[in-house]
Write a structure and sequence with these properties.
Radius of gyration: 19 Å
Strand content: 15-25%
Order of helices and strands: EEHHEHHEHEHEEEEHEHEHE
Distance between the termini: 48 Å
Strand order of the largest sheet: 4-11-10-5-7
Shape: globular
CATH superfamily of the largest domain: Rhodanese-like domain
Length: 205
């Protein structure tokens, strides 16, 4: 299987890098798809409404792993709107009151570990759990999570700092927000653990 960026400038054999078997994911319109059957099998990033028709999966859920892979390739045409920042930078933004802190940890996790102390004025602190427990452990269901965030922040220009415990779940959440059209998204790279480790103010939820 070969993966190509949107620009066609980067190609990588997945079987060589990820240990995956050959396969095919096509996301282009049918006529373009049929005209390109002579080409080597490709994994193409979704760029149109044809994604669900050809792949049989919701675009928002299925494209995230492809986008993560694309960002690892040199010359990829994938842009990223959200920015990863350490707690030492995030505190300055949050203290202005213009930025909201979106915590994607679970409620029990936040109660046990604590939450950031933010100014009483401004956008404040909001908890919307991203990863929920399923049959195979915790998983991220963006189709269920995103509407909860949109109910709190209907304006796609809302200024958001997304945080979790260690900067892993927050990256997945930031990608979903990016896909949903939010334009002012920052992600806490070191998570709440880094926040506490830096001696920044915390409190019990």
């Amino acid at each position: 299987m070969v993966f190509r960026s949107a620009s066609g400038s980067a190609a990588l054999g997945l079987s060589e890098t990820c240990g995956l078997r050959g396969g095919l994911v096509r996301t282009r319109p049918r006529l373009v798809f049929l005209a390109s059957l002579a080409l080597a099998p490709l994994v193409l990033l979704p760029s149109a409404r044809s994604f669900q028709t050809f792949c049989g999966a919701p675009q928002l859920s299925a494209m995230l792993p492809l986008r993560r892979l694309a960002r690892c390739l040199p010359g990829t045409a994938i842009s990223r709107r959200y920015t990863s920042i350490p707690s030492s930078e995030a505190i300055g933004m949050l203290e202005t009151g213009e930025w909201a802190y979106l915590d994607v940890r679970g409620a029990e996790e936040a109660e046990y570990s604590g939450v950031p102390i933010l100014p009483d004025y401004g956008e404040g602190y909001h908890l919307v759990e991203s990863h929920v427990v399923g049959p195979m452990g915790k998983r991220f269901d963006p189709q269920a999570w995103l509407p909860q965030v949109e109910a709190i922040f209907p304006d796609k220009a809302s200024k958001l700092v997304v945080g979790c415990a260690a900067g892993i779940r927050s990256k997945a959440a930031a990608e979903v927000l990016e896909q949903a059209g939010y334009t002012e998204v920052y992600e806490l790279a070191d998570g709440f653990g880094g926040w506490k480790g830096s001696g920044l103010p915390v409190k019990r939820r």
